[in-house]
Amino acid sequence: MGTRDDSDEAYVVGLCGEILGEVALTQHKFDWLLGDPGAGGRQARLPVDAYWPGHRLVVEYRELQHDQPMPHFDKPDRMTVSGVHRGEQRALYDARRDSEIPAHGLRLVVIRPADLNADNRGRLRRNTEADLAALRTLLARAGDEGRVTDAFRTWLLAEGWTPADPADRWTDLEAVRGPERLICEAKGRTGEKGIDADIAYGRLLRRMTDEDPHIRYALVVATSSAKAAQRVPAHVRRSLRIDVYEVTDDDKVHRLTD
């Protein structure tokens, strides 16, 4: 049986450390990231796969069992302190990491086997050159996406909005102000401006599951992607209640108008 030191997780964390130039704190625990209460009400601290304090960055490597049922890992006949089996608890705790880590001012990058050179069972082939290239892209994109999201969150607070728990755990940011609700998709600097803008619009469209007219949608982009985000005609954006916001290189926020 393999050990954590030779696991795919350790391999990925090691490559990320090579890119970042900093040794990770592995299986790090924060005082504010807690599991559900167990016997006596005690809450265990949940570990993260890797934390780089100098970069204020957390990386989670999520293998296939995080995204699809696997009885061997899930143990469906055994209940946890959360009142659900291990597979459902894993999903709950992943969602908790996804919300709590950014809420505490840290960047979170989630990496999956499909992001790297993996076989159909989710095992990495460990093509170091290809994996390093993929991870550089993921870390750079997520790093600037985090900057854009953080700057927009700060702007929202100044405008009287209150961040809210997203209805869709993949949503970058949601906020409420009185009866209004804003659902946001953020994109940082990217070498694929047009493609990434199209992807962002597609994600917003999938989240339009409620006809409430008080819900609006925001595409929040770095300055370099502003023109690409405005390629969708203004009348289409108006009919879909989508507003485009630019976050400048010095973290100023502007709503773009046509």
Describe the protein's architecture and organization.
It is globular and about 55 Å long. 35% of the residues lie in helices and 24% in strands. The strands form 2 sheets. Strands 5-6-7-8-9-10 form a 6-stranded mixed β-sheet. It has 2 domains: 4-126, Endonuclease, Chain A; 143-255, Trna Endonuclease, Chain: A, domain 1 (3-Layer(aba) Sandwich), CATH 3.40.1350.10. Helix 1 (8-20) packs across helix 4. By secondary structure, it is an alpha/beta fold. The relative contact order is 0.09.
Give short descriptive properties of this protein.
258 residues, Endonuclease, Chain A, Trna Endonuclease, Chain: A, domain 1, six-stranded mixed sheet, 7 helices, 35% helix
Mean pLDDT: 87
Strand order of the largest sheet: 5-6-7-8-9-10
Q: Gyration radius, to the nearest Å?
A: 20 Å
Count of structural domains: 2
Q: Tally of extended strands?
A: 10
Quick recap:
Helices cover 35% and strands 24% of the residues. It has seven helices and ten strands.
SSE map:
Layout: H1 8-20, E1 25-34, E2 45-52, E3 57-61, H2 71-74, H3 86-103, E4 107-111, H4 128-158, E5 162-164, E6 173-177, E7 180-187, H5 193-206, E8 215-222, H6 226-229, H7 234-240, E9 242-247, E10 253-255
Parallel strand pairs: 3-4, 7-8, 8-9
Antiparallel strand pairs: 1-2, 2-3, 5-6, 6-7, 9-10
Helix pairs in contact: 1-4
